[in-house]
Design a protein that fits this description.
Layout: H1 7-31, E1 41-47, E2 51-52, E3 59-60, E4 64-71, H2 75-105, H3 113-129, H4 134-194, H5 201-217, E5 221-229, E6 235-243, E7 246-250, E8 253-254, E9 257-261, E10 275-279, H6 291-300, H7 314-334, E11 369-371, H8 381-385, H9 391-397, E12 406-408, H10 410-414, H11 432-439, H12 452-492, H13 496-530
Antiparallel strand pairs: 1-4, 2-3, 5-6, 6-7, 7-8, 9-10, 11-12
Length: 531
């Protein structure tokens, strides 16, 4: 028998191996159906190179073979997912932090500003009914302390929140660096594996999953750049990830980010030790979106501040609280109101305040509100004024008051009879000064937004609008991202039904090849036994 007599065996064996390779790929897909980031794989099957016949009658087919295992992926959908995930990361961070800020203000609740402010003025109203009653005076003092404690607490909590966000900024930078290092190492593994004309499908899946995570943190662009040809003629591709045009990962090379503590505050209201984020080589980093941008906007945002993001973040709300504390304290103590909003107190703007009145013990010139000193103790009126006599000098002293340190003065703390009600010494029933103070509650000229309550309501409403907007954007991005994810999964995801159908198909092919081998064997056995 010629050697070609066993050609049928070779064809059948090829069919056996081809079916077996397809079944192995299907088994791999099914085993990874729940593996995050896994892309289904497909064996690329083709007809084997045929043989020429020696008698010139044509070519004889040599069966089938698997020439590659392909990773099923749509690069456009990957790119689309990353670009949408960047925005989702930013607005998710903002919505989370703004919701946290709303909770700190406690509105609406029994411990919110409106209730506390109402209680304070209600106690002053009770004092107007019986200005000589020391017990009522004591209630006014206590309600005043509760009012200032509320402002202190909100300001301190916002500063603590700024510190927490600052820690998150550092954590995100560390995570970006870690992901970049992992991607760089995978690039090297993939490049080495594919030098032999293989396709590192599973390694590429791992890299894509890391890029998914990275895209939520900062604005990235991802490219696979062709850098000439390999010795076998295939394109030499480098995987590159850039942030605002500068490479974070360039093939095997990783450029890291770093954080540096600021030496100069960006905003007057900032706490010490806030981080600036830049490239490790000292170059400035342009952050356009992502979770890191969301954190920085909330941590640093202050409208109208040069060099600061145009976003109402923590410094903005601390600034507004400080403005409320010093403006209200100055109006309450001095009767000074900046009607024109130009920062200048004109003579006609000087009304009647607590310092103009007399207490039950004959005291006068007492400021109801002052500030806490470095030991967190209330200062007295004399220390607070520090010899200030003119209007400008007095107004200047109120720059020391902030929301975090406003308090009831030591004078009132030590003796509630120093609370002024009368414009004449010794007239207990005279409550002209107290009435002037009570009228301040509804003075629409005290703030550009109106009366004190209007200012705070506007501040809290602005925060609520910002929060709702961030939630809306986050939900929209979540919906868009979900749609892109589903489209991506429809291409790359493993369908159990489809894989089982393919498994049956290739099982039949395997059985047919095995039967063919048995059949050819029986033919040859019969032939050999007959000779």
């Amino acid at each position: 028998m010629s050697g070609g007599s066993f050609f049928g065996f070779n064809v059948a064996v090829r069919g056996l191996f081809t079916a077996q390779r397809n079944l192995s790929v299907i088994a791999h897909n099914l085993n990874n159906v729940n593996t995050p980031g896994f892309s289904r794989q497909q064996a690329i099957q083709t007809a084997a190179t045929p043989y020429y016949t020696t008698d010139g009658t044509g070519m004889v087919g040599a069966g089938s073979e698997v020439i590659a295992v392909k990773r099923i992926r749509d690069e456009y959908l990957d790119s689309k997912y990353w670009s949408e995930n960047i925005l989702k990361g930013e607005y998710s961070a903002k919505s989370e932090l703004l919701a946290e800020m709303e909770v700190r203000f406690g509105e609406p609740s029994d411990s919110g500003f409106s209730v506390i402010f109402n209680d304070f003025f209600a106690s002053l109203q009770e004092l107007s009914k019986d200005s000589g009653n020391e017990a009522v005076r004591s209630v006014v003092r206590q309600k005043g302390i509760t009012f200032t404690d509320y402002l202190n607490n909100i300001a301190v909590q916002l500063e603590k929140m700024q510190e927490d966000v600052n820690i998150r900024v550092r954590a995100v930078v560390d995570e970006i660096n870690s992901l970049a290092e992992q991607i760089g190492k995978l690039n090297q593994q993939i490049y080495t594996a594919e030098l032999g004309n293989n396709i590192a499908n599973d390694l590429r899946d791992r890299r894509t999953l890391l890029v998914d995570r990275l895209s939520e943190l900062i604005n990235i662009d991802v490219y696979e750049v062709e850098m000439g040809k390999l010795p076998d003629g295939r394109p030499n591709k480098h995987f590159v990830i850039t942030i605002s045009g500068k490479p974070l990962v360039d093939h095997f090379t990783v450029s890291k980010l770093t954080v540096e503590k600021r030496t100069t505050k960006l905003n007057e209201e900032d706490i010490d030790g806030l981080y600036d984020v830049r490239w490790e080589d000292g170059n400035d980093l342009v952050i356009k979106s992502g979770k890191l941008k969301g954190y920085l906007d909330i941590r640093d945002g202050k409208q109208g501040q040069n060099g600061s993001p145009n976003y109402t973040g923590i410094p903005h709300y601390i600034q507004m609280l400080d403005r409320f504390a010093r403006t209200f304290a100055m109006a309450f103590n001095e009767g000074y109101i900046d009607v024109n909003g130009d920062g200048v107190i004109d003579p006609q703007e000087d009304g009647t305040g607590h310092a103009d009145g007399f207490g039950a013990n004959g005291s006068t010139g007492v400021r109801f509100f002052t500030f806490l000193d470095d030991t967190r103790e209330p200062v007295d009126s004399a220390t607070f004024m520090d010899g200030a006599a003119t209007v400008d000098e007095i107004v200047k002293r109120y720059e020391n008051i902030r929301a975090r340190n406003i308090t009831v003065s030591k004078d009132v703390n030590d003796n509630c009879n120093t609370i002024a009600t009368s414009d004449t010494d010794g007239e207990i029933g005279n409550i002209r000064v107290l009435n002037a103070i009570l009228d301040m509650r509804h003075n629409s000229q005290m703030f550009s937004d109106g009366a004190p309550e209007d200012f705070m309501k506007s501040l809290i409403s602005t925060m609520g609008i910002d929060s709702q907007q961030a939630v809306l954007y986050a939900k929209n991005q979540e919906a868009i991202l979900h749609q892109v994810y589903n489209a991506r999964q429809s291409v790359a995801g493993v369908s159990i039904d489809e894989e089982l159908a393919n498994m049956v198909r290739f099982q039949h092919a395997y059985n047919a090849a095995a039967i063919l081998i048995v059949t050819i064997g029986e033919i040859y056995e019969m032939l050999l036994n007959s000779v």
